[in-house]
Amino acid sequence: RKYLIYSPIKKALFCVSCRLFGGTSQLATEGFRDWSNVNKILSGHENSKEHLQYQIALIKRSRTEGRVDSNLCRQIKNEVEYWKNILKRVIVAIKALASRGLAFRGSSERFGSLRNGNFMMILETIAEFDPFLSTHIAQCGNPGSGKTSYLSSTTCNEFVNIIALKVKNTIVSEIQAAKYFSIIVDSTPDIAHTDQLSFIIRYVKEDGSPIERFLNFLPNVGHKSEELETAVTSMLASFKIDIGNCRGQSYDNASNMSGIYTGLQARLKRLNPLADYVPCAAHSLNLVGACAAECVTETASFFSILQGLYTFFAASTRRWDLLSSNAKNMKMLKRADGTRWSSRHDACDSLCKNWDGVLQS
């Protein structure tokens, strides 16, 4: 019975509606304490004309006046709606930058600065056509520490992590639905000289289309095969992906990765004999081309001269400007990278197309 309330002070039951509207019954005035006859009295009170009249009056009043804290509830609702609209715009900016792999932050954390980074720049651009966001930035854009704005780098990082977790969970769900998968692992130093191990999984969706997804970066896991094995197995376990369903693995031709006895592929093969190893075709082709060229003295000499020619012009801005003025083709000389064999094709192609300009320079 929702209309009843109990008073610990008077140790009695009261009818809310009758009490509020000045009823004359015992439940409205002094309270009810006859616990042995409680069911009989309450049943009679519920069907009384006075109670029904005051109950209807209470319902009508609540519909017109609302709750006693209606103004506070309305204010809270408006406040929640306000911040929801702010976060919608913030998330749009974060998704736009993250989906294109662009940097978020600059050297400044203030709106209006030319060095405040892409995140704040996008919000400023949106604000030019959005009075709501423009007003918010003007009032809360540079509030200082401890002030709520949802525009700070802290909020940005939190949403990046939340979105990243959502994307990873979606990828893991697809992998678990596909059941069988292959892994591709490689490492490279980033701009801060931290070695980052990239972890990629390849699987086939229900419609038969092959999918290749980047799953995570693992910093500083080491280069020994046992360290790499621990990193790979721990990564799969953290996403609850069964290594027993792995059907392929592909790495470069380094001994710690491709070693037939103690390489990463051999270690994972012992955990799962069905995880066949396929060397990276692009890396293998690159090694074949590089090693074949190094075996021929004339070829090695040619590429040495080609690299020296590029270095000669690139080492001086004056010589490079002279080459640029004489080059009829917009494709300038290219560096012959010793690691990436395809760069040698680019270097040869640029020299052939600018041969006359190079001679004239």
From TrEMBL:
<dbReference type="InterPro" id="IPR025398">
    <property type="entry name" value="DUF4371"/>
</dbReference>
<dbReference type="InterPro" id="IPR012337">
    <property type="entry name" value="RNaseH-like_sf"/>
</dbReference>
<dbReference type="Pfam" id="PF14291">
    <property type="entry name" value="DUF4371"/>
</dbReference>
<feature type="domain" description="DUF4371">
    <location>
        <begin position="75"/>
        <end position="263"/>
    </location>
</feature>
<protein>
    <submittedName>
        <fullName>Zinc finger MYM-type protein 1</fullName>
    </submittedName>
</protein>
